[in-house]
Amino acid sequence: MLSLIARRLLQAIPTLWVVASVTFVLLRFAPGGPFDDEKKLPPEIKAQIEAHYGLNQPLYQQYYNFFLNLCNGDLGPSYKYPGWDVQEIIAQSFPVSLELGFWALLIALAIGIPIGTLAALKHNQPTETGLMGIAMIGICLPSFVIGPILLIVFSLHLEWFNPLGWSYASDRFIPALTLGLLYAAYIARLSRSGMLDVMQHDYIRTARAKGLKDKTIVLRHALRTALYPVVAYMGPAAAGLISGSFVVETIFFIPGLGPFFVNAALNRDYTMVMGTVLFYATLIISFNLLVDIIQMWLNPRTRND
Amino acid sequence: MIKQRREAAASSVASKSLGQDAWERLKQNRMAQIGGTLFICITLLCLIGPSLSSYSYEQQDLAYGAQGPSSEHWFGTDDLGRDLMVRILVGGQISIGVGFAATLIALIIGVSYGAFAGYRGGATEALMMRIVDAVYALPFTMMVIILTVTFDKKSIFLIFMAIGAVEWLTMARIVRGQTRALRKQPFVEAAIVSGAKQSHILQRHILPNLLGPVIVYTTLTIPAVILLESILSFLGLGVQPPMSSWGILISDGAEKIDIYPWMLFFPALFFSVTIFALNFIGDGLRDALDPKESK
Known about the structure:
The complex is a heterodimer of chains A (about 300) and B (about 300). Chain A has about 300 residues and is mainly α. In chain A, helix 4 crosses helix 7, helix 8 packs antiparallel against helix 9 and helix 10 packs antiparallel against helix 12. Chain B has about 300 residues and is mostly helical. At the A-B interface, helix 1, helix 5, helix 6, helix 7 and helix 10 of A face helix 6, helix 9, helix 10 and helix 11 of B.
């Protein structure tokens, strides 16, 4: 177990290096720079600003400086939010994104697992077709369609929630539901096929033969094994939630990290883009490692890898 | 898998090829049929529709802005007075076109990469798949966003290049795993023992078995790409106005849902039905081509 963690952490270093280098190269090849505004700056002033940030140096020097700063844990100042460091922006806005992602994942699991399990238990019955049809609709409707519809129904007509804002606990509900529904649908499909698989195993037959109740068989014996695919899916799901949060945070004007990243990419805010990419890459790598550890804990057969 | 195929073959009097066998199964799948018909209808409508209409996708008529559906404009007009139906159909050309083109790129890269890795084996394979694992762990939409910013021309071609350049990973994994597993199958070993040429083994035994998962995954990649294109357009990074795509129309409509609901309803309807149809075709193909997987 420890050797796996050590190996994965060692692998993470070259991965992050590749990510950073690719991002660096791509950004510098992008036409325009951070200080090419629509309102044209006088060339002398622009040159001075660029000199201040070291953007007038040759590219290899900038690349070297960037990694030097990175090793000191410094992501540099944002070009578009003067006076702010990239770390400060991330530290301020990421907790919001994290909270949104957390609730979304929780909603996805809370909706997806029961639906999938129920569908599997009613295999080849109308209930299954109906539930899986609903799951399919969840997959086909993008969040920027679901979001406004939920907003209209729950906020404007029923007036249960505030239409916008992030101040009260109840403000989390609609955005988290919007973000989570797609994953609820995938989780429903995964737990259905996982459950169908498990129910054919011998140990379930043994449990039946012992005269256990259906409920006990499903909850105590089958569910744990049936959820392996769902646990394995948590890694990709987390990556997906991050990109999904870009859209959902834009729809609901949530002060998370997503809109910062999109704007930074549009405005060539090199340091901000780089910082966000590295931050999210680190996050996803750590999360995948965590998922693997959980998998090994749940399923002894994967431990030998 | 083989056993079931044998049984299926034994039950019918005349022997059938894998393709015919799959086609028979696909024909029995009602949802896949509905999906296929819907998708063909929508594609044809998008291709032919705009030339039959007297409106163009960019022709504005401010005096006739934001009208609900009527006999003149079946789906209504947007706030600039452009005919919504023509914009949806033209947008469909872009969205479906991008979906197919990017998937094709992902298919070419993924299959050659995966097959090469699986065929070579050993250290080459290990290194190649580690690279895939590494890229897989990345925030993939972020990479697409950075790529679209890098190729700032906002040309549709580059957008799908960028999407295809990121979408090939899963394909590579599937193909490599399949090739590896097939090499160790008894029927391949039997073919080797009986002295079949390598090209023969590849053509007769490996490829047909690869084809199933590849076709299925391709069908499922197309809707994923269409969705990604719409996300990019929604964020303002994809297709640029006045050009139309489903992503743009939906994002326009979502902003005005409380005043001009039809501006969201019709594009979202076309979009969702297409994704729905493609997913059902994919699921149907999976059941048809790989009986073991179907449950």
